[in-house]
Amino acid sequence: MDSHRPPAVVHVDLDGASAIYTMHGWPYPHDTDPLFETGIENLLVMLDALDIKATLFVIAADLDNPHKRELLGKAVARGHSIGCHSWTHRRLTTLTEEQQRHEIFSSRERISEVLGVPVDGFRAPYFDIDGKTHRMVAEAGYHYDSSLFPRRPVPSGDGVLESGQRPCRLWPD
Fold first, then answer.
1. What distance, in Å, lies between the first and last C-alpha atoms of the chain?
2. Is 57 exposed, middle or buried (0-12, 13-18, 19+ CB in 10 A)?
3. For the chain, how many helices (H) and strands (E)?
4. Sorting pLDDT into bands at 50, 70 and 90, what band is 172?
5. What is the pTM (predicted TM-score) of this model?
6. Contacts of 81 (CB under 8 A, 6+ apart)
């Protein structure tokens, strides 16, 4: 086995109740998000116990919440990688090009700035990506995208994107 490759890769989308409400078009009426908070707290305990480092895909808007920001800081301090899960967790292919750019580009900058770490990976909310948004992900400077399911073809506008068994590398390292 290649000593530079881990035996497995663990990555987790951090969709809390506020993101789920947003997904359905409902206003989120609470100041706290117990689903996010207990989820990440328990996740960090489990990952520590198993000595696993994961990539956590963060929704940039969650950084506006001080408690969520604190919990994400703990994840970074424990050595977990941070990926981007957009700004607001909306379906990218339903948005205007300007909105897509904000979701893809601005979210990466915000997450990196607030958490002080590079943000190399992207995962589209709902795995909803097409060729146009995939090209934007590459243009935004991400190193990889993990929005495609293995062997599930996605129309790209100029052909078909088809993922293999790994996250899609946007350019060689």
1. 20
2. buried
3. 6, 8
4. very low
5. 0.84
6. 53, 54, 55, 56, 117, 120, 121
Q: What DSSP state is assigned to residue 79?
A: T
Reported confidence tier of residue 173, pLDDT bands at 50, 70, 90: very low
Residue identified by tokens 């706290």 is: 32
Summarize pLDDT for 12-57 with one digit per residue, the tens. Answer: 999 999 999 988 889 999 989 999 999 999 999 999 999 999 999 9
Query: In angstroms, rounded to a whole number, what is the distance separating the alpha carbons of residues 51 and 46?
Result: 8
Rounded Cα–Cα distance for residues 16 and 89 (Å): 10
**Contact in structure between 122 and 142 (CB atoms under 8 Å):** yes
DSSP secondary structure of 148-170: SPBT--EE-SSSEE-B-SS-EES
- Are 10 and 50 contacting, i.e. CB atoms less than 8 angstroms apart? no
Non-local CB neighbours of 122 within 8 Å, separated by 6+ positions: 57, 83, 84, 85, 104, 108, 137, 140, 142, 144, 145, 146, 147
18 touches 36 (CB < 8 A) = yes
**Which residue stretches of the chain are H helix?**
17-23, 34-50, 66-77, 97-101, 107-115, 131-139
Mean of per-residue pLDDT scores for the chain: 86
